[in-house]
Amino acid sequence: MISYRNDRQMIPHPILLEAKQIAPNQILITYDQRTDLSSAMNVSNYWIRSNMERPTGIATVGMGDALMSSNAIRPDMGRITPADNSNMRFNISFRVNAMSGVMYTVLPCFVNLEGRTGYMGENWGPSSRNMFIGM
From what superkingdom does this record's organism come (predicted)? Predict the structure, then answer.
């Protein structure tokens, strides 16, 4: 279990295992542990980075942009729904399609474990397969 160090506490949290494009406007994301549905389905807890200088297609941030609340996915851009009853797999559906040939990186933050709250860090790690090339 990977933990995030915050104010001298170790806070366990789910890690994004994989992000996979399953349709022109849809990504399937999978966490390593059961998540708190409220935080996992809050679209504002997600950013999509493109390998372009400026956000392209489904991206909310470009290569040089910092992650801020103002450039997270907004409800008018997309929504997140459970892919099954596992609390680990979710579909992110966008109003626009991903741009073909553009590399995207899914960057979730603030997603808590099931039954917990208060995690304030990122939910990806060195072994996360959170990049894909738009089809």
Answer: Bacteria
Place of tokens 């109003």: 95
Task: Report domain 3-133's class.
Answer: mainly beta
CA–CA distance, 38 with 22 (Å, rounded to integer): 23
| Boundaries of every domain in the chain | 3-133
pTM value is: 0.91
Output the tens digit of pLDDT for each of the chain's 135 residues: 444 444 435 789 999 999 999 999 999 999 999 999 999 999 999 999 999 888 888 999 999 899 999 999 999 999 999 999 999 999 999 999 999 999 999 999 999 999 999 999 999 999 999 999 999
What string of DSSP letters covers 48-106? EEESSSS--TT-SB-TTPPP-GGGSPPTTTEEEEESSSSSSEEEEEESSPPPTT-EEEE
Tokens 């073909």 found at: 100
Q: Are 123 and 13 in contact (CB under 8 A)?
A: yes
- Give the up-direction half-sphere exposure of residue 57: CA atoms within 13 A in the CB hemisphere: 22
